[in-house]
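Whether sequence alone determines local backbone shape is best considered at the level of individual chains. For completeness, the protein is quoted in full, as a sequence line and a line of structure tokens:
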Amino acid sequence: MVRVTLRPLGAWQMIVGAETRQIETNGDTVKDLLETLDKMFLGKLKNEIFTREGHLDPRFKIYVNGVSCDSLGMKTLLAHGDIIVLFSVIDGG
């Protein structure tokens, strides 16, 4: 179990709320964190941020201690005290 600080921005705020909060995950990866959040929000997260194939929608970005998770994605390891910024890319025309 890992305890991290969660800071949602943009569209993430509409999904998980705007406040910065401490979250305890049931594992030590970004995937575990997202599964914990999905349970907290009764499945709402899966419908909003994942593609049909189960991948993180490219409009949603996750940063751990200021570093993008793009390279390792859901397998990115978390450690106690990490700061997780949930960021959404602005799209549309």
